[in-house]
């Protein structure tokens, strides 16, 4: 990272979170003395056009008016050229192919920030690992942002907190400074593994809670799934090097509670449809936005198996997703394990 102030930020992905986070940063940086351009890349030219001309992205954010500091383009090269910070908000399974297009245009000092809560299928890699592998960047130039951050609420400027994690503390502080505004409060953390695993697995647990909804199970069942879900997430993360305390924080418990409780969650909504008896193809057809747990679930299980970690709730969800488990039997299976002490 260079010492000169940030002048341009690129955000790749103009879906609900990419657009909202662009607004969060615009509302953070326009209060400072230096003008910062936020260049938002939309895959669909008509969305770039609407953002550029009307300052709205009605497909994802209704009538929310976006700040003037946000420009939009459907050219990835144009968005990334000369950017000091590149924020990634595309679906996890498509990140690698987008990164391939960045290599030639990325500024030599640029910092990459992942907002993505998914694991790559086939490699079981976290997004920070995919970025490092594709672009050859050292960890101090890769940050992740994760927390209880339902995009629609933040677009309405309802206050929330979040975590910016990077192995390099200075980078985490830089990115936190770029998104710190009156309704978005970032905390810094150096536990990238823990923060990423928390965000990835909570989507699978939210699918499980949605399945409970679809099966008309009540709050005791859902609280039990959330609590044991947090336990299995923590087991996986700590085996991979993540820190225990991350899981009582915003990226851990905070995000799990927000997602599992909210009707805005795409993962919980997808889970509800599965619980009502739709199969994966039928649910996918109904979704208009990304529900990362639907794709990341099997990768989470593979990662867990390779590392000798038991994840019974994720296992049940993946069995429903791949059609090997009848959803009507899930109630008995979600929490079914040998009797043991709670802390294990
Ligand atoms: N929406 C939310 O409340 C939050 C989302 N996230 C995470 O942010 C990431 C992005 O999610 P959202 O913006 O919500 O998703 P979304 O479905 O609203 O938007 C995804 C965006 O990626 C674009 N995209 C680019 N290449 C694509 C391709 N090859 N295939 C499909 N879409 C492609 C889409 O056009 C779309 O603009 C996900 O990993 C999600 O888990 C994290 C926190 C909050
Ligand atoms: O990550 C989120 C909230 O923090 C959004 O969850 P969904 O992707 O399930 O909508």
From TrEMBL:
Residues of the Glycerol-3-phosphate dehydrogenase NAD-dependent N-terminal domain: 8-171
Protein name (Swiss-Prot/TrEMBL): Glycerol-3-phosphate dehydrogenase [NAD(P)+]
EC code(s) of this entry: 1.1.1.94
Residue numbers binding sn-glycerol 3-phosphate: 117, 147, 202, 255, 265-267
Cellular component GO terms held in the UniProt record: cytosol
Alphabetized Pfam families for the sequence: NAD_Gly3P_dh_C, NAD_Gly3P_dh_N
The protein's role, per its UniProt record: Catalyzes the reduction of the glycolytic intermediate dihydroxyacetone phosphate (DHAP) to sn-glycerol 3-phosphate (G3P), the key precursor for phospholipid synthesis.
Superkingdom assignment: Bacteria
Binding site for substrate: 117, 266-267
């Amino acid at each position: 990272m260079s010492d000169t102030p940030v002048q341009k930020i690129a955000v790749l992905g103009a879906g609900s979170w990419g657009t909202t986070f662009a607004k969060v940063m615009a509302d953070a940086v326009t209060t400072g003395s230096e003008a910062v351009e936020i260049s938002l890349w939309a895959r669909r030219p008509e969305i770039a056009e609407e953002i550029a001309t009307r300052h709205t992205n009605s497909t994802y954010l209704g009538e929310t008016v976006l700040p003037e500091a946000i420009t939009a383009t459907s050219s990835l090269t144009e968005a990334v050229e000369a950017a000091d910070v590149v924020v990634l908000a595309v679906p996890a399974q498509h990140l690698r192919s987008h990164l391939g297009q960045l290599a030639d245009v990325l500024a030599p000092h640029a910092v990459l920030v992942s907002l993505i809560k998914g694991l790559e299928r086939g490699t079981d890699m976290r997004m920070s690992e995919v970025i490092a592998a594709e672009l050859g960047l050292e960890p101090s130039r890769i940050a992740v942002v994760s927390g209880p951050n339902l995009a629609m609420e933040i677009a309405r400027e309802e206050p929330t907190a979040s975590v910016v994690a990077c192995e390099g503390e200075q980078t985490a502080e830089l990115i936190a400074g770029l998104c710190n505004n009156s309704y978005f409060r970032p905390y810094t953390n150096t536990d990238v593994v823990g923060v990423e695993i928390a965000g990835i697995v909570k989507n699978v647990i939210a699918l499980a809670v949605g399945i409970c909804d679809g099966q008309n199970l009540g709050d005791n069942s859902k609280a039990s799934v959330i609590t044991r879900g947090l336990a299995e997430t923590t087991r996986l993360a700590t085996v991979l090097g993540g820190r225990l305390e991350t899981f009582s924080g915003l990226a851990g418990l905070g995000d799990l509670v927000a997602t599992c409780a909210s009707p805005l969650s795409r993962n919980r909504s997808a889970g509800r449809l599965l619980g009502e008896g739709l199969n994966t193809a039928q649910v996918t057809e109904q979704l208009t936005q990304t529900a990362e747990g639907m794709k990341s679930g099997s990768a989470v299980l593979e990662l867990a198996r390779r590392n000798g970690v038991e994840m019974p709730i994720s296992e049940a969800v993946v069995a429903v997703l791949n059609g090997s488990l009848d959803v009507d039997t899930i109630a008995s299976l979600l929490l079914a394990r040998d009797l043991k002490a709670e802390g294990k």
